[in-house]
Amino acid sequence: ISAALQVSELSGGAFDISWAGMRGIWRFEKGKERVPSDQEIKDKITLVDYREIEINREKKTVFLRKKGMSIGLGGIAKGYAVDMAMQALVNSGIKDAIVKAGGDMRIQGTEDGKPWEIGIQHPRNRDKLIARLKLSNISISTSGDYERFFIKDGVLYHHIIDPKTGYPAKECSSVTIIGPDTMTTDALSTAVFVLGPEKGMKLIRSLKGIEGIIADGTGKIYTSPGISLE
Asked: Which residues pair with 106 in a beta bridge?
């Protein structure tokens, strides 16, 4: 929760674990798809504000200041779990491994003495890659609008909700973040997706040890200085 709040601060609230105050009004399960009314969103979005989450580090407690608030760690806990799983492998003497959970991955050591080759899926073509990266001892997370979504009346609705509007973020189709640990890359991939290409890349460039690849809604690719797609 503490790490999540740090990313909330960095992103100006684009990442916000108190999104869970809106839990249930959007449904993405096949056969149960649901688009909430504008009024439902208006009523629930008042419960979304990371600044109302209070942590007491000494007592190890969390207090939500607004009645009805809730927190959901889906945007960061998976990355944390990947890090812990990899640490368990390393502690047991395994030097070369990949741990993957959904779009989050920790890459350790090498494959036959060479960096692991990791492909980044094209958001609109499952058989195509937008990048092949050679990586070692690093974490990588991808957030996309193509994993949990539905189309209604010709409009694509996906599960990455902008905490400030209550609606799916519109400017990106895929965001990949590379960084020192998977908990961080997990949260940042969501934050950058919500921010959009311009603000998102600005955030990436401001963070030491972080690189990123952004595909916008038209398929245009943006990369940070440390990434080459050649």
From this structure: 99, 139
How far apart CA 185 and CA 101 sit, in angstroms, is 13
Round to whole Å and give the CA distance between 6 and 10: 6
Three-state SS for 157-212 is EECCECCCCCCECCCEEEEEEEECCHHHHHHHHHHHHHHCHHHHHHHHHHCCCCEE
Over residues 35-86, the pLDDT tens digits come to: 999 999 999 999 999 999 999 999 999 999 999 999 999 999 999 999 999 9
Distance of CA 136 to the CA centre of its chain: 21
Q: Which amino acid is at 112?
A: D
Distance between CA 46 and CA 194 in Å, rounded?
18
**Alpha carbon distances (Å) from 138 to 93, 112, 133, 156, 166:** 18, 17, 12, 33, 33
Q: The pTM is what?
A: 0.95
Contact 100, 110 (CB under 8 A): no
- Phi/psi of residue 13, nearest 5 degrees: 90, 5
Q: How open is the CA angle 111-208-137, to the nearest 5 degrees?
A: 15
